[in-house]
Amino acid sequence: MLSTLRPVVAVWTRGRFGVHLHCESRVPATGPVILAANHVGWMDGPLLAIHSPRPVHALTKQEMFVGRMKPFLRRSGQIPLDRFGPDPGAIRSSLRVLADGHVIGVFPEGARGAGELELFCNGAAYLALASGAPVVPVTFFGSRDPGAGSSSRPDRPARVDIVYGEPWQRPRQPWPRRPYDVAQATASLRTAMLRSIAEAKSITGRDLPGPLPAGDCEREVARKQATT
Fold this sequence. Notes:
The protein is of the alpha/beta class. The protein has helices spanning 2-17, 44-51, 69-75, 88-99, 123-131, 179-204, 217-226; strands at residues 19-22, 33-37, 56-61, 79-81, 103-106, 135-141, 160-164.
């Protein structure tokens, strides 16, 4: 289903939001891959799934799996995630996807915000250690206007730039994966992603939209997740 819809929706989003891809050849053409993206607006998840060079199984907040969205997300291969506590089911599902040679999408910040990785969760690094898969950083520009709320869409004329960074990889580490090892890998991946964001700014000549407005609920979600 996802592979059938992607080309059609990609044409529409390019016209509506002026989507431009940069350095997409950095995504390996075959084998397991983790796409780890910054998160500035609600469009980032759909755009990652639609425009990635390969179909993406994204870790998606479980709150989205309700009503009409639930069967669509399930059929398109997205993975529900509990953002506020350990979720072994999401980890197992992600590792199965990677073992089958496919692509997982992760937003390490856990919630929309400034996109500068001030908050950074350990899920992407853990999956990399458990699978040995490379992590390709992804930077979004333009999916939220400066000063706009987390659920806003960019005003027309819009331009969204999606920049793929240099892959980051660590050797597969068998069980047990100690908290210290995961913490070190997480810090290293965050450094690599910050470096990728700086490169993406240079490539596009753009900057990120800055923090969300005071009182935006996504800020509280991010804080809560960071303390769990």
